[in-house]
Amino acid sequence: MPMPLYDSEAIVLQSYALGESDRLVSFLSRTMGRMRGVAAGARKPKSRFGATLERLSHIRIWYHQRETRELVRINQCEIMESFIDAFRDYPSSVVLALFSEITQAVLPDHEPSDASFRLLLLVSQEVKKSAKPELPLAYFALWSVKLGGWLPALDTCAKCGRSIGPGEPAFFSARALAVCCPNCRTPGMRTLSLAARRAARRMLSERLDKIAPDAAAPEVARELADSMLDILEHQMDRKLASRELLGVPA
Q: Among 3.20.20.70, 4.10.230.10, 2.40.50.140, 1.10.10.10, what is the CATH number of 5-84?
């Protein structure tokens, strides 16, 4: 019995050399979730896949799937949007790689998440458009934590329950998934500034493409991103390899 043919909108997360001429491709399907498949002959000079399997390419993909096999067989891809040019800018390339790495790490196999798909496409497009990756990274990390169900209340003390006023600092723990007031602070907590908390509230209420690029200073975006990346690494129980390259000169 022939395998059924499926098609879906998808984003390529990563591809790896497989054998002499094939590629193993990790991709996020809008309708089927995170999947892996084999693109036969994709590494040949005149491959029909061309540049469609580059990282973060937004594509239409056709694939065969057998229920008893983990890997699908990729039949054809059609490019909808390429991010090759964005990868030529070093800071942008590091952040785009982080998007891919985090998506692969936090999303389970074969569980559709339209919100995660739209988030990944939106932040990638904003990095490509602006070449200023600090705000998109903070937005992506914040929403990845939010969608994962790990975001603590940012203006309420997790221990005593009182609101943290605008004139006082807040203290954050990725391990405890908690934000605390000065009175309940424990050793090892890091400061989470009022500016970072304000930026987070705005990002949670507005789409990234509606927020002005200068809405948060780069250092505020980095502070928020660092806090959210700490949560993601704690939940993943490992360090993000791409994160080590943030701020490293090209």
A: 2.40.50.140
